[in-house]
C-alpha cells in the first residue's frame, strides 16, 4: 500500500502547467529543467502513454514519479483550484506564457470561475506577483518576470480605456464582459504600478432580504425602517463586509413603479432596472455632495448614497431626510452605536441624528468552517486570555480537506447588529448621553460579539476567524 505524503509546490513550479492539464492527467510538477520536467503522477496511470502525450504537448523530456492517488488528489485541490464552470477558452497549451495575448483573458476567467472577488497585480524590486482574494483571504497564484509586468499593465490599461503613458498618477477604469464587469484601480508604487481588479457580477438573483442572513427579529426591525417615507438608514462595517449587498437587496425590495429611486455610487456594482444610478466622478466635480444636491431637484422618493465619507455629505443626507426623503447609505464604523458617535464627530447635531436616523446596522462577513473536516478542540491553558472567552470550553478547528481546498473553511456567513433609533434611545441621543450601551444592553439587542461567540459555540466558525470582532467590542 502506498504511503500518502504531502507535496510542497512553489509558485514557479505551479506555473509550469495550468489547472486543466494538471487535473486531466493527474500530474504535479516535481523538478523543472531547461529541456525536461519531472512530474509526480497518480500511480494508477499508464505511464508510457502518458509520458509520450505530455512530451508532445509540452515539447520537453518527461519523467514520471508515481505516488499515491490521495497524494495527487490533495495537491491538485490545493494548488490547482478550479471552479464548477470553467471557461471553454482555456488554452490547450500546458505552459502558457505570461506575455501571451491570452494570458490576461485566461487570468480573469479563471479568477471568475473559482469565485475570486479581486485580482491583485503587485510589483517589487526584483519580482512581481499575482494574487486572488477568495472568501476574504488573499492567495498567491502567479509569480511573473519583471520584464513581462509592464506589458501586462499596458494590456490592462488598454482594455480599461486608460492612458498607458500616465504612470505617476492613480487611474480608475472598467472592463465590461457579457455577464460581469471589472473595476480597475491603478496605483503608482515605489517599483511600478500596482493594479487591483474587482470582479463585479451582474446577476442580481442573490439580492434578496431573505438571503442576507439576518435573524427574524433583526429582519423585522430592518424592514420596519424601510417602510419609512423619510429618514436615514445607515449600514456600517469595514471594506468587504457585505454592506453593498445589503443596500442593493434593500433597493430591490423598494423598487416599485410608483417610486423614484436615485443612487450615486463608486462604483456601480450592480445595475438594477427601474433605478436611476449615477457613477461618482470626483475628477470632474461629481461628488457625493454635489450629486445629492442635484438629486433633491429630481423629485426622488428614495436616495442611495454609496458612502457617507465626510461632514458635508452627512449634512446633505440629513437635509434630504428632513425634506421628506428616505436616504440609504454606508459608513465606516465598528458598531451600530459607533455610527452615532461618528456622525457627531462629523459635526451633525445630536438632536438631528435622533430625529432622522431610523436604524443603524453593523455587519461583518466571517468564514464558515468546513463541515467535512472540522474537528472539536479544547481550549488549553492561556490560548485565549480574555474574560469573554470564559463561556467557551471547547471550540472547533478546520483540519483541511479537498472539499475546502485544505483551508479548513468553506463559504461565508453574515453577522448583523440591527439597532432601531426610537423611544428611549432617541431621547438619550438627543441628550448626547454617554450611556447608549446601557440602553442597548437593557433592550437585549444582539451585538456582533454575541453573534460571533454564538457561531463559535455552534461550531460554525473558529475563534481565530472572529477574534478581532470579539476584541473590537471590548
Describe the structure.
35% of the residues are buried. By secondary structure, this protein is of the alpha/beta class. The strands form four sheets. Strands 12-11-13-14-10-15-18 form a seven-stranded mixed sheet, sandwiched between helices. It has a six-stranded antiparallel sheet with strand order 6-5-4-9-8-7. It contains 16 helices and 18 strands. Helix 9 runs parallel beside helix 10 (311-322) and helix 12 (350-356) packs antiparallel against helix 13 (423-430).
Helices and strands, with pairings:
Elements: H1 11-14, H2 19-25, E1 27-32, E2 36-42, H3 47-58, E3 61-67, H4 69-79, H5 103-113, E4 118-123, E5 128-134, E6 137-144, H6 146-159, E7 171-176, E8 180-189, E9 192-201, H7 216-226, E10 231-236, H8 243-254, E11 261-265, E12 276-279, H9 288-295, E13 302-305, H10 311-322, E14 326-331, H11 336-345, H12 350-356, E15 357-369, E16 374-378, E17 394-398, E18 409-420, H13 423-430, H14 436-443, H15 448-458, H16 463-472
Parallel strand pairs: 2-3, 10-14, 10-15, 11-12, 11-13, 13-14
Antiparallel strand pairs: 1-2, 4-5, 4-9, 5-6, 7-8, 8-9, 15-18, 16-17
Helix pairs in contact: 9-10, 12-13, 15-16
Amino acid at each position: 500500500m502506498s504511503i500518502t505524503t504531502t507535496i510542497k509546490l512553489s509558485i514557479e513550479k505551479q506555473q509550469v502547467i495550468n489547472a486543466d492539464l494538471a487535473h486531466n492527467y493527474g500530474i504535479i510538477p516535481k523538478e523543472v529543467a531547461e529541456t525536461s520536467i519531472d512530474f509526480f503522477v497518480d500511480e494508477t496511470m499508464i505511464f508510457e502513454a502518458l509520458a509520450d502525450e505530455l512530451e508532445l504537448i509540452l515539447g520537453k523530456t518527461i519523467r514520471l514519479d508515481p505516488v499515491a492517488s490521495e497524494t495527487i488528489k490533495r495537491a491538485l485541490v490545493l494548488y490547482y483550484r478550479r471552479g464548477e464552470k470553467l471557461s471553454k477558452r482555456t488554452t490547450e497549451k500546458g505552459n502558457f506564457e505570461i506575455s501571451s495575448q491570452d494570458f490576461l483573458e485566461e487570468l480573469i476567467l479563471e479568477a471568475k470561475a473559482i469565485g475570486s472577488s479581486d485580482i491583485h497585480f503587485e510589483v517589487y524590486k526584483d519580482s512581481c506577483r499575482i494574487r486572488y482574494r477568495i472568501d476574504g483571504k488573499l492567495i498567491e497564484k502567479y509569480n511573473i518576470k519583471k520584464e513581462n509586468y509592464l506589458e501586462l499593465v499596458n494590456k490592462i490599461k488598454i482594455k480599461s480605456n486608460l492612458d498607458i503613458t500616465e504612470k505617476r498618477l492613480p487611474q480608475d477604469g472598467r472592463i465590461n464582459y457579457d455577464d460581469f464587469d471589472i473595476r480597475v484601480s491603478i496605483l503608482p508604487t515605489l517599483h511600478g504600478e500596482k493594479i487591483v481588479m474587482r470582479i463585479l457580477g451582474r446577476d442580481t438573483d442573490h439580492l434578496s432580504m431573505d438571503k442576507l442572513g439576518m435573524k427574524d427579529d433583526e429582519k423585522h426591525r430592518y424592514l420596519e425602517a424601510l417602510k419609512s417615507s423619510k429618514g436615514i438608514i445607515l449600514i456600517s462595517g469595514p471594506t468587504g463586509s457585505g454592506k453593498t449587498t445589503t443596500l442593493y437587496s434593500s433597493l430591490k425590495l423598494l423598487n416599485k413603479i410608483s417610486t423614484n429611486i436615485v443612487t450615486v455610487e463608486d462604483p456601480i456594482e450592480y445595475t438594477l432596472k427601474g433605478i436611476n444610478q449615477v457613477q461618482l466622478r470626483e475628477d470632474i466635480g461629481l461628488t457625493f455632495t454635489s450629486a445629492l444636491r442635484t438629486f433633491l431637484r429630481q423629485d426622488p422618493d428614495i436616495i442611495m448614497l454609496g458612502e457617507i465619507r465626510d461632514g458635508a455629505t452627512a449634512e446633505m443626507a440629513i437635509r434630504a431626510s428632513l425634506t421628506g426623503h428616505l436616504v440609504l447609505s454606508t459608513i465606516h464604523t465598528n458598531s451600530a452605536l459607533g455610527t452615532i458617535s461618528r456622525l457627531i464627530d462629523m459635526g451633525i447635531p445630536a438632536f438631528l441624528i435622533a430625529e432622522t436616523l431610523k436604524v443603524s446596522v453593523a455587519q461583518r462577513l466571517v468564514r464558515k468552517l468546513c463541515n467535512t473536516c472540522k474537528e472539536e478542540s479544547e481550549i488549553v491553558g492561556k490560548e485565549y486570555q480574555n474574560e469573554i472567552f470564559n463561556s467557551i470550553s471547547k471550540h472547533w478547528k478546520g483540519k483541511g480537506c479537498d472539499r475546502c481546498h485544505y483551508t479548513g473553511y468553506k463559504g461565508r456567513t453574515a453577522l448583523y447588529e440591527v439597532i432601531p433609533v426610537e423611544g428611549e434611545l432617541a431621547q438619550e441621543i438627543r441628550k448626547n448621553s454617554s450611556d447608549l450601551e446601557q440602553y442597548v444592553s437593557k433592550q437585549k439587542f444582539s451585538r456582533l460579539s454575541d453573534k460571533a461567540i454564538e457561531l463559535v459555540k455552534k461550531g460554525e466558525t473558529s475563534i481565530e476567524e472572529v477574534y478581532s470582532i470579539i476584541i473590537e467590542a471590548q
